[in-house]
Batch of 2 targets.
Target 1
Amino acid sequence: MTYKVGTGFDSHPMVAGRPCVLGGVTIPHPTGPAGHSDGDAVLHAVADALLGAAGLEDLGSIFPDGDPLWKDAPSAKLLREVARRVIVEGYKIVNIDVVVATDGPKIAPHRDAMRQRIGEILGIGTRDVNVKGKSLEGLAAAGSPAGTCVVAQSVCLLER
Ligand code: MG
């Protein structure tokens, strides 16, 4: 058996008037991630971790910004396509771990829903997906034109 580890990172500004979709879950919140797709930084980080582990192109190369096909697209669709490509390479997804940091919504109340949703999208069990929420402690405000942002970092393990 060969094991491959991959890492992924993503960040999006949080702006008013955007649906707040994180980890594939829509959270009631006055701001949401801005982006060409739905801006779900959690799913984007998970996707890049999977692509990295499988030795495939990164997310931005597969789904270029500005492609009208992916305008406001649910990132679940992108992640499902990434999982398909990883599986075609002969890999099985062993587990996913992801940290999401934001001064937007509290993540903890939505953690289980995110784990379940990511598991569903990838076709793996909820226990093989972990999500941890962190506060940015106000540190993002100075660096983001929008005043706040969401950042996500993920790691995954594949076996073949
Ligand atoms: Mg992104």
Note: Residues 10, 12, 35, 41, 44 surround magnesium ion (CB under 6 Å).
Target 2
Amino acid sequence: MKIGKKGISFIVLMLFCISFVVGCGSGDKKPAGAEKQPEKIVLRFGHTTSTETPTHKGAQYFADKVKEKTNGRVEVQIFPGGQLGGEKAQLEGLMAGTHDFHLGTQAPLSNWLPQFMALDLPYLISSEQQADKILNGEVGKYLLSLLPSKGLYGLGWGENGFRDFTNSKRPLFTPDDLKGLKIRVMENKLMIDTFKLWGCDPTPIPFPEVYTALQQKTVDGQENPAILIEKSRFYEVQKYLSITHHFYSPLILYASKVTMDKLPEDIKKAIFEAGAEACEYQKKVLREDNAKAVAVMEKAGIQVNRLTPEQMKVWADTSRPIYEMYKDKMGADIYEKVMAAVKAN
Ligand code: EAX
């Protein structure tokens, strides 16, 4: 076929246009002839705490690792401070696939997976080392394996820490001191019933609203790990900090199953790896920061009271009926498993 002069100029013009469009579409400088890059994937990560917390540092680490492991193909954008809602709302968002990752407690899970209440029991886990063994062992693996049935993946266990009370009325030495106080709690029935056994008035409020609730005296107090009390500045609006360590609070790095199952296998794998590494990093940072938190707050003026082992035992003993009350609700199977793991470790 003979192509005339006009035909040649037309082809040259078309080639020029195509290379221009491709060049603009990829948006970065590439050597001539390089293949068209796959589109960048942007994913949303939410948590409820401030940008100073180990939770946020863990989220940041995860975002960096994902970027590194996917050669920049995946960008994780972080939404701190409850911008995507409280913890329960964020889990619902992941289940629906409206956002993609969340680092938060396991407390709201009991609304869908009662088995997780096995870890909500008061005075169950007594040290970080014991927590590591239980969560990295059979119990932790089993619990994370339940998440896909609810549209979630668990990329790993992080740590929130042992929970302590703050309030504006008095130091707490025994559960009697808590009687009649209005305490903000997480949205978790087992925990609410535990606080009732101690005689207080538990009021579930999502975490992003807690500072204002304390400031406006909607509630007298709240309970959280020392590091979060410090980094959320609750000590500014509370007088007393009581080191009761009544619940061990793990974190889970959650991913939306809807999102993950749409991603190419290599990216999914990179995200799982990044998640496991981010959890280890978050836990390390938390343990370093948490150790300093009480002293920081004490210096800032909050009155701290620590409990003797005898006083601690009174809290544990009075909350003990919760174990029997919730054994069948969580499932006798997981209950026995967790009790055996606690005993063995
Ligand atoms: O994940 O709600 C709470 O008290 C949690 O400890 C907090 O959201 C951190």
Note: The two ends are 83 Å apart (CA to CA).
